[in-house]
Amino acid sequence: MMKIAVIGGSVGNLTAAICLAREGIDVSIYEKRDYIGGKLRMVQIQGYDFEIGPTMITAPEIIEQFIASTGRDIKDYMQIRSVRHHTQNIFPQLNSFFLSTDQAFMRKQLERLDPVGASNYDDFLAEITRMKQAFEELLTLSPLVSWRQLLMPPARSAYLTLKPFETIEHFVRRYFTNEEVIASFTRYASYNGIAPNEAPAMFIIHAYDELINGVYYVAGGNLRLVRVLQQIAKEEGIRYYTGKEVTKIHVDEQAIEGVCINDELSLEADAVLMSVEDFKAQPQLFADDLTEVPYVPATQPTKTAACVMLVALNTHTQIYHHHVIYSNDRIREFEMLKRGEMPDDPTVYLYNPAFSEQERFLRGDALLIFANMPYTTDEQRVEKMKQRIYDKLAEVGLKVGDYLVTDQLWSPAQLTTMFDQYRQEGQMKKITQFLLNPILKDHQIKSLYFTGMHAHPSAGIAAAIANGERVAKRMINELVAKKNGYG
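Above: the chain's sequence. Below: its structure in token form.
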């Protein structure tokens, strides 16, 4: 029986493993941490549950279809609920603009704030729909490794539809005139640490998910999805281990022979599946067995990083499911970030799952708060940023300090260590950086496969599942062909 070693227990890897196991392949998952789920995890502090990782689910049909493809009914495992008015944007003059899937509600807001935008809204939705469809079309093609492929059929038409020579700021201004509305629709770039006047227009496809397809969450917490995938994996005969780090991949004549666990135990494997982030961060996995170390793009902290705060309150506030408090001057904010300076007036992003599931948070809100800041290991700078975040919330009437039970802050350096990932999104300012997969061209190891190849702006839980399915399909086709003597 063919054996595949999967490095890491992320959602995409779990999905791929399930697909492979259902084809009769022997699959084992090795996770170096003490939990399965990748970036999705739960942190408990003084009796409060904090959800870490993707804070919203879009395209729930992808999740439902995947569960159905395994012969199961999603209703037997979990419930996915929608959030109609999902994001409240608050501006310096305390003006409020909600993002919602209710199009009549959106038009009513725009008629008040931006009459020009209201008249353009249908055209805006139609254009982002075309861009979303073009992006999905590119994903159906064989992995792209050269920009020249983007200029040739069948990729050319879809590529041009994604506005490769336009920024998201320029794109949004073609439809809207109110600065607060513009800020709300360009936050898909700023949330990822890129100034809107530098980010590709392609970032706007995230608006399709939020305004047309809808925003959802899993009842009981999004981590529930990981537990469901774990259960299905177990039922399909997949073995998964925590606290087991793959420290070496054995290669002979550029073909995978096995993996070494914790520098102690070597196990046979015919193929390896891992995330592209892990591959970039750990070229030493292969170095001893190869005459030439695989090409790996540079991975190092960028100037624009982030900090995260976990804040427990003894009451339920009016903080929305998703809440954004904007800087008075977002252009100046990013200029400071690019210079490595602490923004004196940061934009603050909040996630409050208790807003939608108050019955699950009986003690009070468990807030996940996020803000862009320079990469630093200086604890004093981080503490200063923490105070600026609290000050920013107080400016708009969210005096969470009055109800504070406890808080915990994760610095940029801590986030890098905890999640083994640098803020590479902050470097991605060209559309080709999202669409091309140079690693597929440059790596020389046979039967090595990657999840997470597309770091695109709509990446999330459903996107990870779709990616896992695509990779598994490719693996099955190639490995079966090789087994039959055709590869």
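Residues 194 and 463 are 21 Å apart (CA to CA).
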